[in-house]
Amino acid sequence: MTGLEERYRRLLRLLPAAYRARWAEEMVDTFLLTAMPAAEADPDRAQFVADFGRPSLAEAWSVLTLAVRLRLGAGDPAGQGASRAAAYGAAVRLVGLISLLLLAAPTGISVATLVIFSRHQGQLEYAAPGPWWWLSTVAGLLWVGAYVAVVGGSRRTRTPLAMLALALSTVAVGRLILAGWSTWPAAAGDVAYLLLGLVPLAALPAFHPDAPPVRPGPWLAALPVAMSAAAALALLNAAGIDPLLDLPGIHDLLLLAITAGYLGTRRHAHWPLALAILAATALAVRLVSLLSYARYTGLHLLLAAGITEAALLFGALLALVPLARRDLAARPVTTPP
Amino acid sequence: MTEQAFLVLTALAEGPCHGYGILGEVGELSEGRVRLKVGTLYGVLDRLVGEGLVEHDREEVANGRLRRYYRLTGAGRDALAEQARHQEATARAAQDRLRAWRPAAGPA
Questions:
Q1: Which of A19, A106, A189, B67 could form a disulfide with A289 if both were Cys (CB 3.0 to 4.6 A apart)?
Q2: pTM score, two decimals?
Q3: Mean pLDDT within B26-54
Q4: A66 touches chain B (CB under 8 A)
């Protein structure tokens, strides 16, 4: 075996074993034919490539994306979503949709803020939104755009929109920290919330061309509902003296509402896995932010609400994990060819 | 049907072919626009075999390696014919509109 072949075979180890058993030998043969120059024309060069050649980045990328797709159910056309890989794929797509919906929801708060400001313009207690507020709002609108792109099946725009949204959110949080408005450890909570933006980005590859299209109707209808709910929850802060809900808090309450809605109906088998992934991520972010808030005085309400949210998320996990495990155990690892 | 699947089926419409041959055919058919990587090709082939549009034809030994050939199934031929009709109709509509197209009159 030449060095080039060995390196390509090593790359193929990324693929699921069942797929490899069926296709690996052919893939190696085809790859070597594409990669090796004709030995008759230039024997020295052919020997050099055989000894020291490597799969190109583009080849490695094609194998890597194939491996991810197969593990998310792309090789399951006949199984119609019955295999475990297909369940992972459906769950990861759901994680992508719900996490984008929850990141888009706070735009409702921005809309409400603008409405309140326009009605009370000129009154001293309502300061005009500044440039950094607008930056956060634009980031929120980009999350809305990424959500609509995923729901509408627009493969070209969704990733750049989500990346730009995350980049702008990072700039906004970074500026808070640099300006000293959000100091460590309080900044840990802001940074942890930022990490929630990585969740949809990690889930986007599951929307591969073989995946069933998203049903746009219910998901588009969910957007104004989530935005209104976020705005209504943010109003709770305006009612009291101390803040009660931060952005992770609003995120968690919306997620808990979706989970409660699911547990009430239990219609779709892949939902518990998706909701469990989201609840675990939200719980981690909540705990990091609570640890940082605990060092400050005057945040009693925020802390109490945060601890309640964390407890509810933990309770949701206890309900969801057994359901997810039962669904996965009932499925074959892959469907027979 | 994705463009990649359409091109692979079109490559096999001429007769049974192995993976490397399909890569070359796809490059020629698309006039060099589509250069499938090996990982991509075998993702598409796996799906087409799974959907019953392509099947195993025969095996040959070349340079000490087993080379597998694939061919279109009846269902694959029908799917390709339908997709080709669909694309032809779209292309015809575009041509008709282009023939009727007149540049908008600019300001005088």
A1: A189
A2: 0.72
A3: 91
A4: yes
